[in-house]
Specification:
Layout (H helix, E strand, L loop, with lengths): L4 E2 L10 H9 L27 H13 L4 H11 L3 E7 L8 H21 L3 E7 L6 H4 L1 E6 L3 E6 L19 H11 L5 H7 L8 H12 L6 E4 L3 H16 L1 H17 L8 H5 L2 E5 L2 E4 L2 H6 L6 E4 L4 H9 L3 E4 L1 H7 L3 H7 L5 E4 L2 E6 L8 H9 L1 H12 L2 H25 L5 H22 L1 H10 E2 L2 E2 H4 L3 H6 L3 H17 L6 E6 L4
Parallel strand pairs: 2-3, 2-10, 3-6, 10-11, 12-15
Antiparallel strand pairs: 1-15, 4-5, 7-8, 7-9, 13-14
């Protein structure tokens, strides 16, 4: 393994160039709180929800049921005693979510550890599991990768979910079988650990299963996972949501003005109009249904249980947990920049935003370029990445072999037609052409297929590797992912955030399996 390679501005996948420029320049990103810096001067605070004995008792019981280690239980005790926290979050996914979920959690862990050292008091990493979300398509599939096989996909059947159902409620059903299929298809130094861990994961719904995997993946870190469906959490959030409902129209106008101001500065809207108009969902007969502005203004939705939408979730999170900082992705940073009026209207102090780490894993023999344009072509995926990888590594001998192979097929067709004493008929020609394509594909796999698979590994459909491939890969391929990947990334990221430097790297591994 070689070291982390800093990526030039404008080249990191998943982070818009405008955001990269702001981070690199050290400018504020316009969110609801100033960007985190000067870690030694950060003011720590404790979350009011953790002072509720019933909630922390439930946290202890849930973590024990999910198989957490002693470090997580000690973190819950510290929170109950008034410790500060750093928060990040995501919806529960099949196979624990894509790489960026792991990078976000790593950021929360690394930042909490650094703040603990600087302030000589416990600071706890907290993961908010967005189990109350109802976007099944976003969480139901997981992509995996093998150098010989290329990318392959697992997905929870659509029949396991009904419209509006919170994704955390999706029953275990096929989850264990899908995980078993992943274990069969993966190969790497960490497979023994994954195989030994799988039978210990509770056979419950998607939220518990994803949470249990993350607690084991980040064992010894003191990670605490909060389930957004918890009724005690919902009860604590209800007064805040009712205050919002009472001033919804005024808040909506203020948010709209904020969006227009940012639009004048060249920023595209991050929250859609419906999200800006109403920030509350209701749970009705097991379905998550958006409460309309009219229902909120009339008070007709008061009898239902409520959960916050994207407009209010950060505000609820910051009010109840009082995190020192929130580790956020680029999309989250964008909508956090539109909701300062919500924080102001409800009197909530916002967590300090921190851009999450961005990491692209590559092969150590791929000839990773230093020229920014070449890096950008690689990370864009698709044809540009294939061409760049071919330029870097596909030999002329391989290309010549493919050309000769194609010419030989044309000669073979000529011999067949000569023997038949007539041209092949349309149906026979179609069958022959299909066989030609099959053989050509086999030859590409032999001579240049690795280039195609490498391009698919870097990005699929212009979606970055860290947004596509499952976190499981890291624990499958690396016998010690903490030493191989997570440790170097955490150290580089902590060094970068306080200096307002770019938070994007590539990391060549000895082999991308």
């Amino acid at each position: 393994m070689t070291g982390l390679i800093p990526l030039p501005p404008g080249t990191a996948p998943g982070l818009a160039p405008r955001w990269q420029e702001l981070f690199a320049a050290g400018a504020e990103v316009g969110t609801a709180a100033p960007r985190l810096r000067d870690l030694s001067r950060v003011e720590l605070r404790s979350g009011p929800l953790f002072a509720e004995a019933g909630f922390t008792d439930r946290l202890r019981a849930r973590h024990a049921r999910l198989g957490s280690d002693a470090a997580s239980q000690e973190s819950i005790d510290a929170l109950a005693a008034g410790a500060a926290c750093v928060v990040t979050g995501q919806q529960p996914h099949l196979l624990a979510g894509p790489f960026y979920t792991a990078w976000k959690i790593l950021g929360a862990i690394a930042l909490a550890q650094r703040l603990s050292e600087l302030h000589e008091t416990p600071v706890v990493p907290v993961y908010w599991c967005g189990s109350d979300d109802a976007d099944f398509d976003e969480v139901s599939a997981a992509w995996l990768f093998d150098a010989g096989r290329g990318p392959w996909r697992l997905s929870i059947p659509a029949g396991e979910w009904h419209s509006g159902q919170p994704v955390g409620d999706v029953a275990a059903g096929r989850l264990a079988a899908l995980e078993e299929a992943a274990l069969v298809g993966l190969h790497g130094a960490g497979m023994d650990w994954l195989r030994a861990t799988a039978p210990t994961i509770p056979d419950t719904g998607l939220a518990d299963r994803a949470s249990a995997w993350l607690l084991r993946m980040f064992r010894d870190s003191g990670l605490v996972v909060i389930d957004a469906r918890d009724d005690l959490l919902a009860g604590a959030a209800r007064p805040l949501l009712e205050r919002y409902a009472g001033s919804r129209a005024e808040v909506a106008r203020a948010v709209e003005e904020r969006v227009l101001q940012r639009s004048d500065q060249g920023w595209a809207p991050a929250l859609d109009p419906a999200a800006r108009e109403s920030g509350i969902f209701a749970l009705r007969e097991g379905r998550r249904v958006k409460v309309t502005p009219e229902e909120l203004d009339a008070g007709s939705a008061m009898r239902w249980s409520w959960s916050p939408s994207v407009l209010l979730r950060p505000v609820v999170q910051d009010a109840l947990l009082a995190p020192v900082a929130a580790v956020l992705g680029p999309g989250e940073l964008a909508y956090h920049a539109e909701i300062p009026p919500v924080y102001e209207a409800l009197g909530v102090v916002a967590a300090r935003p921190v851009p999450r780490p961005h990491l692209t894993l590559t092969g150590s023999s791929w000839g990773w370029p230093s020229e920014p344009g070449a890096v950008a072509r690689l990370l864009a995926g698709g044809g540009g990445a294939r061409a760049e990888l071919a330029r870097l590594g596909l030999s002329d001998v391989g290309r010549e072999a493919f050309d000769e192979f194609s010419a030989d097929l044309d000669k073979a067709l000529g011999k067949i037609e000569l023997r038949l004493a007539r041209p092949m008929g349309p149906r026979a020609r179609a069958r022959f052409d299909r066989e030609v394509r099959r053989l050509q594909k086999a030859e590409v796999d032999r001579s240049g297929g690795s280039v195609e698979r490498r391009a698919q590994w870097l990005a699929r459909g212009r979606r970055s590797q860290e947004r596509v491939y499952s976190s499981w890969l890291l624990w499958a391929w690396c016998a010690d992912p903490v030493k191989t990947v997570l440790g170097p990334l955490a150290a580089a990221w902590i060094g970068a955030i306080d200096r307002a430097e770019a938070v994007q790297w590539a990391l060549p591994l000895e082999e991308i399996r």
